[in-house]
Amino acid sequence: MRAAILRGAGDLGVDTVPDAAVETPTDAVVRVVAAGICGTDLRGYAGQPGPVQGPRCGHEFVGVVTETGTDVRTLRRGDLVVSPFMFSDGVCGPCGRGVPSSCRSGGMFGVDAGGGQAEAVRVPFADTTLVPVRASPDDERVPALLALADVMATGTHAIASAGLHRGAAVAVVGDGAVGLCAVLAAHRAGAERVFLLGRHPRRLEIGKAFGATDLVTTRGEEAHAAIAEATGGVGVDLVVDAVGEQAALDTAMAVVADGGALALVGGPHGGVNAMLCFLRNIRVAGGLAPSRAYLPALVDQVLSGALDPSPVFDLAVSLDDVASGYRAMADRSATKVLVRP
Questions:
Q1: Residues with Cβ < 8 Å from 53, sequence gap 6 or more?
Q2: Are 65 and 130 in contact (CB under 8 A)?
Q3: What is the pLDDT of residues 156-200, one digit of tens each?
Q4: Residues 111-158: tens digit of each pLDDT
Q5: Cα–Cα distance measured from residue 249 to residue 266, given in angstroms and rounded to the nearest whole number
Q6: DSSP string spanning 79-103?
Q7: Which domains does the chain have, with CATH numbers?
Q8: How many CA atoms lie less than 13 Å away from 125 in the CB half-sphere?
Q9: CA-based angle 250:254:258, to the nearest 5?
């Protein structure tokens, strides 16, 4: 089968690799219908630190079950499924506490198991990882379902983990797919005002359509001053950091109100001042999104027509042309890329 292979910084190709196959009784094999390129993939592509270092790539995919192990009970051949970006056993302590992203036996696709940017994937713990969907592989909602695998689940986790109350003011730092989905999640949760901090016109348009009430295109102290003025100097109830770099974390601390919350879902590569959080009674939420915990409800919302995060995908490429998708996201000419094998 064909799969995207990261050979080194900026060097991505498609190679023939051994076919995905059942290796343990709890495995399933999924033929990929659509896969996504994520900002985490881009870090590896750019040679930056992070979990994605190759050779396999991709942790977001929707597909069709083609084979199951002898212990798989809830899935059948032909089922359309959405996979969270991490697999989990569903029985360990963290899974029982609702954080399957911390599963003791789990891991991330493209890092601890085959990558989703391929013709097929072996899925460990198939029963407790995959979520079946009552739809066909050519359903027009496949892009929306694909967004649930990571970015929409992560945006949802940012809002849910912080306990957002209706009527709250929220600031989202970062106009990538996670930030945009956090805007959508905040709007759906009843936020009265949603500030989106970003600079890319197309992404800001998506953010506005998703429910952003205020677009902040400045950075640093100018952005801080704009939000302070808009909130009467108080700041916002919740800041979602969807970037993770130190400048974004500094902005989050600068614009959050005393007694407010930070939801860190951008994979922090910097830090926040714990003493300031203590003195200002700022709560830190977020974390590595347990996307499997959110998927069943999100799938139902997509199928009912209540939720559509698909606009985050503004470019589609074939698997053979996946390198162009990476380049488009790296140069910010695409927000998020959908890959079809």
A1: 6, 44, 111
A2: yes
A3: 999 999 999 999 999 999 999 999 999 999 999 999 999 999 999
A4: 999 999 999 999 999 999 999 999 999 999 999 999 999 999 999 999
A5: 10
A6: -EEEE-SEE--S-SHHHHTT-GGG-
A7: 2-150+290-340 (3.90.180.10), 154-286 (3.40.50.720)
A8: 23
A9: 130
